């Protein structure tokens, strides 16, 4: 049985609302400390932040559209690292993915990888906007470019967030070589458990307290 502690250890406690204030981020960090989550995930403009020892800091890049020049994403990632980010969650260029330019997708990711070579790099593929074949190809491009994780969603795309089907397909594609992060629309314990059962090794949650309340231990 998955325990509360098991889940807390794989949560990126997330606040990416554009109107979030410094005070909101401080509250997020305090809640993450209380809940025992793995990390906090914030917007780049909120860095640097002070966090308790052991709490990781993740930052988004090219968010939420991914429709940025690769050099801009790379510069954003590099600045996030300078400002203390341990992990970078970048968004792929969806236009390139939709038109089947997988070499272009791979190169976009690689530029960001090179800008943050020692940080954990998660690649948001926006799975709800892709076909199964495109999900597989996006995962393969991410792995080829040196990513550490593939991630389902930004949580901002109108097509929707994470699904167990997408998570399972992503896990089947990357095997145990990469992590799989499920994010977007996971608001209760049942949904979180479903993502873990499908193969997720990290969860991006803004409703972490509510989700954890549904687990024993």
From TrEMBL:
User: In which broad location class does this protein mainly occur, judging by the first location in its UniProt entry?
Assistant: cytoplasm
Identify the domain of life.
Bacteria
**Could you tell me where this protein is found in the cell?**
Cytoplasm
Keyword hit for Calcium = no
The UniProt family comment states: Belongs to the DeoC/FbaB aldolase family. DeoC type 1 subfamily.
Function, as annotated, reads: Catalyzes a reversible aldol reaction between acetaldehyde and D-glyceraldehyde 3-phosphate to generate 2-deoxy-D-ribose 5-phosphate.
Q: What is this protein called?
A: Deoxyribose-phosphate aldolase
Origin organism is Schaalia naturae
Its gene is deoC
């Amino acid at each position: 049985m998955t325990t509360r502690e098991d889940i807390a250890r794989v949560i990126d406690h997330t606040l990416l609302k554009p109107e979030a204030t410094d005070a909101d981020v401080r509250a997020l960090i305090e809640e993450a400390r209380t809940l025992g989550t793995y990390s906090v995930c914030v917007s780049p403009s909120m860095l640097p932040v002070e966090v308790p020892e052991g709490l990781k800091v993740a930052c988004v890049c090219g968010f939420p559209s991914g429709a940025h020049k690769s050099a801009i994403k790379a510069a954003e990632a590099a600045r996030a690292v300078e400002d203390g980010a341990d992990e970078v969650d970048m968004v792929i260029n969806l236009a390139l993915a939709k038109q089947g330019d997988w070499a272009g997708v791979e190169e976009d990711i690689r530029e960001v990888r090179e800008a943050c070579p020692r940080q954990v790099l998660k690649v948001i593929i926006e799975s709800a906007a892709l076909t199964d074949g495109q999900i597989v190809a996006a995962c393969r491009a991410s792995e080829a470019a040196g990513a550490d994780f593939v991630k389902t969603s930004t949580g901002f795309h109108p097509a929707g967030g994470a699904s167990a089907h997408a998570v399972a397909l992503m896990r089947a594609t990357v095997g145990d070589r990469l992590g799989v992060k499920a994010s977007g629309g996971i608001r209760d314990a049942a949904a979180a458990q479903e993502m873990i059962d499908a193969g997720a090794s990290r969860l991006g949650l803004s409703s972490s307290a509510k989700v954890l309340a549904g687990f024993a231990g």
